[in-house]
Design goal:
The complex is a heterotrimer of chains A (262), B (788) and C (149).
Chain A: E1 3-8, H1 13-20, E2 27-29, E3 41-47, E4 56-58, E5 62-66, H2 71-76, H3 78-82, H4 87-92, H5 98-101, H6 106-112, H7 118-124, E6 128-132, E7 136-139, H8 140-146, E8 153-159, E9 164-170, E10 180-187, E11 190-196, E12 203-204, H9 206-213, H10 219-232, H11 243-261
Parallel strand pairs in A: 1-3, 2-3
Antiparallel strand pairs in A: 4-5, 5-8, 6-7, 6-8, 9-10, 10-11, 11-12
Chain B: H1 33-37, H2 44-47, E1 53-59, E2 65-71, H3 73-76, E3 81-85, E4 116-117, E5 123-129, H4 132-141, E6 143-148, E7 185-193, H5 196-202, E8 205-213, E9 225-230, E10 236-240, H6 245-256, E11 263-266, H7 284-293, E12 297-300, H8 303-308, E13 315-324, E14 330-342, H9 348-357, E15 368-377, H10 391-408, H11 413-420, E16 427-428, E17 440-441, H12 447-458, H13 460-463, E18 466-468, E19 473-483, E20 494-500, E21 506-510, H14 519-530, E22 538-541, H15 559-586, E23 593-595, E24 599-602, E25 608-610, H16 611-619, E26 628-633, E27 642-652, E28 658-668, H17 675-694, E29 724-729, H18 752-764, H19 775-787
Parallel strand pairs in B: 1-12, 10-11, 14-15, 21-22, 28-29
Antiparallel strand pairs in B: 1-5, 2-4, 2-6, 3-5, 7-15, 8-13, 9-10, 9-12, 13-14, 16-17, 18-19, 19-27, 20-21, 20-26, 23-24, 24-25, 27-28
Chain C: E1 2-7, E2 10-15, H1 22-28, E3 47-50, E4 53-56, E5 69-71, H2 77-90, H3 99-112, H4 118-125, H5 136-146
Parallel strand pairs in C: 1-5
Antiparallel strand pairs in C: 1-2, 3-4, 3-5
Helix pairs in contact in C: 2-5
The chains are: A alpha+beta (262), B alpha+beta (788), C alpha+beta (149).
The structure holds flavin-adenine dinucleotide and FE2/S2 (inorganic) cluster (FES) (2 copies).
Chain lengths: 262, 788, 149
């Protein structure tokens, strides 16, 4: 059972950051949907609600999403529906129900780097940076690899391009976690193939992207790219699916996503 | 006016006949519907007292161990802790938690707390404190030292395993159930009609396949819960979300070694049961705490405990061997089964036998049939009763095998059924009510028309066996049939009491337990029909063991049929009394008056007395005779309802993903007492069956810890998972049933698994014989076909 | 901690622990319509509105609703009854344990979606599990209530 000894609503990010680092058991509250599943004994819970981090701002060449933005806001955002072929709304719409998506946040999702995350896979296929209070702006790819220690995610920034994109996932029950999720984007001839829920966290299949860029995109070559992606990434087993099954459907989902983008 | 009321008075077809029903066969809204829908405080925890002690249970982290030492001193010292109980503090008399009529077939193999713990989650200590936080704090401070044993986890290896799940020698059996404790066999059973081996030897075609059905969780939305207190007479009162108040009274009394007269059990509204609450999983804990402390106490299981420390469906392995001639006439059926009852034997023998008893009669043309095997103990959560009660397991195996036989013969699965199924009027020695050498007759059966109707509704002739949708997608259709029972013949009984109150309205007192099914409503409908009155004049009371007439409880598809018949008897008794006392007050002879629901009058209607006036005068000094009607019913037979189920699936050949597109179920539950409620029963049961077929799976770690103990890991179907469901009724008329009715609650869960398996086979040629049918298993099958 | 909230249009001051969740607080203060069916945010039974948006009260920290407006089914009885009539006429409230949360989601949907299709309805309601009804009767009731063909 989650326990919380003290609770604060800081007025600045700086204040939040310094409280966070006062005690190793202090923690940031996102939507708290995942935090409450554990048995963390939080000394001071830090609520970012007063920091105006709930926004989806479209700028000339980028879109910024604040850490406290909920997944339901992503799902229903007209800005996100018309950009990136709508894959961000598409990626979150199967996460729980409306009532859950009205709570869970972008900050909690990205910062925690969950392996199963649908949103992170979609974001990874785009040109996404994360802005951390201490570490500053780094690419999502680097962040997913390395993570951060006792930092605060302030927002994510997605560079606006004319890219085409596609999000595919495999779930057994529609309300279950994905057995595998795949996002593919194409910007001119720059291809990004991201695969998550392997069940490890999302990664970019770089070789496959390169191969595809250099190919004529015939059906055979697309299939080959999907095979390369499956080979270069590592897969594992959990209760939702075996390594072998994930490998089989990775080929299929990557292929289908590419076909849709072409 | 001449009237008939089914079992209670002759047998005559009503719906087809001339008598018009006013309340029966009408979609009357549930009498408690609006209140429960809009959130009124009517469930157990809504009624519990705020100052009740809160109980938490310390549970075993080991699948199999003996408690070497247990120290509660530090925990006791936590301020606010009221009592901590261990195995040293409880009576040493074994009992079963299964809610069954005495003498229960389930073995008495458990104690409230035992020195041995037999599964991860088994109870070690009971902690009662002023609030939840305190109880949890104390729980962490109880020190236990275990001697850990090698657990028995794989039920196929349980028999003869070096570890013996029940090493104790004081298990009590009420009857011979074939237990061989030292071999981990809780029960064994054999049924054989005719000479199966020689029939098989003479058959042209033999199909032999092994099927596995998984454990399934009930996943009712209201978790297990109960609270208790001592009333003004010092009697133990338990308020519980239970399907079996009277059995709970007996179980608690035995477990605590107190007389039943000292226990009262009250059942408020229940947030779903599905058979789970036919096992008394929680009531003993608050009862014990209240007895020890004299204080009110309550226990509410969280979802994790509900998943991992109560009961589930028995997982089974069934090998079916079918013998047939080339024309598809089935000659012999052999079913060899193994069932996993987990750590304790709740419902072990009965679930097991029923898996054969309520499947084999479907194929009445077979010359010889056999059903046999063992139920084994393992170190996993105990299994128990769950909607379908073994028939679901048996149906998946037998129906899948029949479908595989049809495929082997190149025959339409519908045709093989048409050739072989049981028909109305036929006899079968396995049907309940059969006596040696005198097989019972099937009095009502519309299975044939169910199949015909289902075929039309799914458009079988257009769709069978498959339709290619695209390069990657194929649709297939499949089917299965099933039967169940209506109550347990010769064992279960129900009583009903009707009071005529002073303003001319009635109180119907019941001991059955409406767990959301609407049984209170349909029982009131039955009473209203017999009494020629309207629903608003019948008040239903259920259930309180101090007040309600005895009823074994709502399980085994019994309430509509068994309690329904009791209500008819009670209502008829009331009618007779109304006519009798009315005639007396009118100064006429009984045969010269009739009762039309409002008035007691003579034949020409000139002399009459209103029911209101009658009631007023009867309770007054003038009459001194409040009218009470009563009736008890216990069936000799258990008339089976039938379902024909048809599935249409779309399979993605590259990923194995199965989308259920359509499910059609045509139901013969006899007369449909309330079409709206029956439809929802069917739809709800089908979706639970779809869950069993495609999504639900109770899974354990290698060390025996349940992994699927949340709704995140254990997926019951959500709205998007079920496609379009169509339910239709083909009514037969059951002469022993109330107004011709049979049961519906359980039979509806049985067909989805085999029908969906069959549809997948017809789509892509893959037979999945181990539930659930997941995309991964389907894709594996497809890949194997390709590599062949 | 003391918080000020408006529950069902009534100003209230509540005393809540920092680690208490809204579902428990509401039940503690007598809003017994609020039900819980799980411990993981998976069932939707606990749905209430915070500032008119449906949320899981089991996953909402009570301290965070300070200054906000909470609506439970007790606060929209007239509308809830109106819809409940449709539900009951279908026989689609069975055990009823899921009903308050379900109805709160349906009423929120009615406010949020204009002329929804059946797919949109199903999508909006997916977070509300029901083990009894098989969902079809609930859908029939919603369609009739919203006048969707
Ligand atoms: C029932 C259920 C089903 C789900 N299903 C899916 C699914 O199918 N697919 C999927 O992709 N996801 C799923 N999720 C996960 C969900 O989408 C969120 O990613 C998750 O709940 C975390 O978000 P939160 O806002 O609740 O974070 P919290 O639980 O509040 O926080 C999670 C962690 O992140 C930290 N944190 C939060 N915000 C910040 C910040 N701004 N800076 C630094 N640290 C921060 C917290 O301290 C905590 O350690 C599911 C969650 C639940 C409860
Ligand atoms: S109680 Fe299950 S989602 Fe809130
Ligand atoms: S009616 Fe029982 S869970 Fe929905």
């Amino acid at each position: 059972m989650l326990t919380i000894k003290d609770y604060v609503l800081p007025k600045t990010l700086e204040e939040a950051y310094s409280i966070l680092n006062l005690n190793k058991n202090n923690a940031i509250l996102g939507g708290c949907a995942f935090l409450r599943l554990g048995s963390k004994q939080i000394e001071t819970a830090i609520d970012l609600s007063d920091l105006a981090l709930k926004y989806i701002n479209e700028k000339d060449n980028q879109i910024e999403i604040g850490a406290m933005t909920t997944l339901r806001e992503i799902e229903t955002s007209p800005v996100l529906q018309k950009n990136f072929s709508g894959i961000l709304p598409e990626s979150v719409k199967n996460i729980g129900g409306v009532q859950l998506r009205n709570i869970v946040t972008v900050g909690g999702t990205v910062y925690s780097r969950y392996g199963f995350s649908d949103l992170n896979t979609a974001l990874l296929s785009l040109d996404t940076d994360v802005v951390l209070h201490r570490k500053g702006r780094i690419s999502l790819e680097e962040f997913l690899e390395k993570g951060a220690q006792k930092d605060i995610l302030e927002k994510i920034i997605i560079r606006k391009t004319k890219c085409q994109a596609s999000f595919k996932m495999m779930r057994n029950s529609a309300a279950d976690y994905a057995i595998l999720n795949v996002a593919v984007s194409k910007n001119d001839n720059d291809w990004k193939i991201a695969v998550g829920a392997r069940p490890q966290r999302a990664k970019i299949a770089k070789e496959a992207g390169k191969y595809l860029a250099g190919s004529k995109k015939t059906n055979e070559e697309i299939e080959e790219a999907a095979v390369i992606a499956t080979k270069e990434l590592a897969f594992g087993s959990n209760t939702r699916g075996s390594k072998a099954y994930r490998e089989s459907i990775c080929k299929v989902l990557v292929k289908r996503a590419i076909m849709e983008v072409i | 006016m001449y009237r008939v009321y089914g079992a209670a008075k002759g047998c005559q077809k009503i719906l087809g006949g001339s008598v018009k029903m006013r309340v029966i066969n009408k979609g009357i809204p549930k009498i408690d519907g609006i209140d429960i829908a809009t959130g009124k405080a009517v469930y157990t925890d809504d009624l519990s007292s705020n100052n009740a002690l809160v109980i938490k249970i310390l549970r075993s982290p080991h699948a199999f161990a003996r408690i070497k030492s247990i120290n509660t001193e530090r925990a006791q010292e936590v301020p606010g802790v009221e009592c901590i109980l261990t195995y040293k503090d409880v009576p040493g008399v074994r009992f079963t938690l299964a809610g069954q009529s005495y003498p229960e077939p389930s073995p008495y193999d458990r104690l409230i707390l035992d020195e041995y713990v037999r599964y991860v989650g088994d109870e070690v200590a009971i902690i009662a404190a002023v609030d939840e936080k305190t109880a949890l704090k104390a729980l962490k401070l109880v020190e236990v030292e275990y001697e850990v044993f090698e657990p028995v986890l794989d039920f196929e290896e349980a028999e003869g395993h070096p570890s013996i799940v029940h090493p104790e020698d004081d298990i009590h059996l009420n009857m011979d159930i074939g237990m061989n404790r030292e071999k981990n066999i809780a029960s064994s059973y054999k049924l054989e009609i005719g000479d199966v081996d020689s029939e098989l030897a003479e058959s042209d075609i033999i199909v032999e396949k092994t099927y596995y059905t998984q454990a399934q969780a009930h996943a009712m939305m209201e978790t297990y819960r109960a609270f208790s207190y001592l009333d003004h007479n010092g009697r133990l009162t338990i308020v519980s979300s239970t399907q079996i108040p009277f059995h709970v009274r007996g179980i608690v009394a035995r477990a605590l070694q107190i007389p039943q007269s000292k226990v009262r059990v009250i059942k408020p509204r229940i947030g779903g049961g599905f058979g789970g609450k036919q096992t008394a999983s929680v009531e003993i804990f608050p009862a014990l705490v209240t007895l020890k402390t004299g204080k009110p106490a309550k226990i509410i299981y969280d979802r994790k405990e509900t998943f991992s420390s109560t009961t589930s469906r028995h997982a089974m392995r069934i090998t079916v061997k079918l013998g047939a001639d080339k024309e598809g006439n089935i000659k012999a059926i052999d079913m060899q089964a193994l069932s996993d009852t987990g750590a304790y034997g709740e419902h072990a023998p009965t679930v097991f036998s029923v898996a054969g008893h309520k499947t084999l009669p479907l194929y009445n043309k077979a010359q010889a049939v056999r059903y046999m095997g063992n139920v084994v103990y393992t170190n996993k959560m105990p299994a128990g009763a769950l909607r379908g009660y073994g028939v679901t397991q048996g149906t998946f195996a037998l129906e899948s095998a029949i479908n595989e036989l049809a495929a082997e013969l190149n025959m339409d699965p519908v045709v093989i059924r048409e050739k072989n199924i049981i028909k109305e009027g036929e006899t079968n020695p396995i049907l309940e009510g059969s006596k040696d050498g005198n097989p019972a007759a099937l009095e009502s059966c519309a299975l044939e028309s169910c199949i015909k109707k289902g075929k039309e509704l799914i458009r079988w002739h257009e769709k069978y066996p498959r339709k290619v949708i695209s390069d990657t997608k194929v649709r297939g259709v499949g089917m299965a049939i099933t039967m169940q029972g209506s109550g347990i013949g010769g064992i279960d009984t129900a009583s009903a009491v009707i009071k005529l109150n002073n303003d001319g309205f009635y109180t119907l007192l019941l001991g059955s337990t409406d767990m959301g099914t609407g049984s209170d409503t349909i029982l009131a409908q039955i009473a209203a029909e017999v009494l020629d009155t309207t629903m608003d004049r019948i008040i239903v009371h259920a259930a309180d063991t101090d007040i309600s007439p005895y009823d074994t409880g709502s399980y085994a598809s019994s309430t509509a049929y068994v309690t329904g018949n009791a209500v008819i008897k009670a209502a008829e008794d009331m009618r007779k009394k109304i006519v009798g006392s009315g005639a007396k007050l009118l100064g006429l002879s009984e045969k010269d008056v009739e009762f039309d629901g409002e008035f007691i009058k003579n034949i020409n209607g000139k002399q009459k007395l209103s029911l209101n006036e009658l009631a007023q005068r009867l309770i007054s000094g003038e009459g001194k005779n409040q009218l009470i009607g009563m009736g008890t019913f216990g069936g000799e037979t258990s008339p089976p309802p039938f379902v024909a189920g048809f599935a249409e699936v779309e399979v993605d050949k590259e990923t194995g993903k199965i989308d259920l597109i359509n499910y059609v179920a045509v139901v013969d539950c006899g007369t449909v007492i309330n079409p709206n409620l029956a439809r929802i029963q069917a739809e709800g049961g089908l979706v639970q069956g779809i869950g069993l077929a495609m999504y639900e799976d109770v899974q354990y770690s290698e060390r025996g810890k349940m992994n699927s103990n949340t709704f995140m890991q254990y997926k019951i179907p959500c709205r998007k998972d079920i496609g379009k469901i169509t339910v239709s009724f083909e009514s037969s008329y059951e002469p022993t049933g109330p107004f011709g009715a049979k049961s519906i609650g359980e039979v509806v869960i049985n067909t989805p698994a085999p029908a969906i398996a069959n549809a997948v086979y017809n789509a892509v040629g893959v037979n999945v014989r181990k539930l659930p049918i997941t995309p991964e298993k389907v894709l594996k099958g497809i890949m194997e076909l390709i590599s062949e | 901690m003391k918080i000020k909230v408006i529950i069902n249009n009534q100003n209230m001051e509540l005393d809540v622990a920092y680690d208490e969740f809204l579902a428990d607080t509401l039940r503690r203060y007598g809003f017994l319509s609020v039900k819980k069916g799980c411990d993981t945010g998976s069932c939707g039974l606990c749905t209430v509105w915070v500032d008119d948006k449906p949320v899981l009260s089991c996953a909402t920290l009570s301290v965070r609703i300070n200054g906000k407006k909470i609506t439970t089914i007790e606060g929209v009885q007239k509308e809830a009854k109106e819809f409940a009539e449709y539900l009951v006429n279908e026989g689609a409230e069975q055990c009823g344990f899921c009903s308050p949360g379900f109805i709160m989601t349906v009423l929120a949907m009615k406010r949020e979606l204009q002329n929804p299709t059946v797919e949109e309805i199903t999508h909006y309601l997916t977070g509300n599990l029901c083990r009894c009804t098989g969902y079809m009767g609930q859908l029939r009731a919603v369609k009739k209530y919203l006048g969707v063909v």
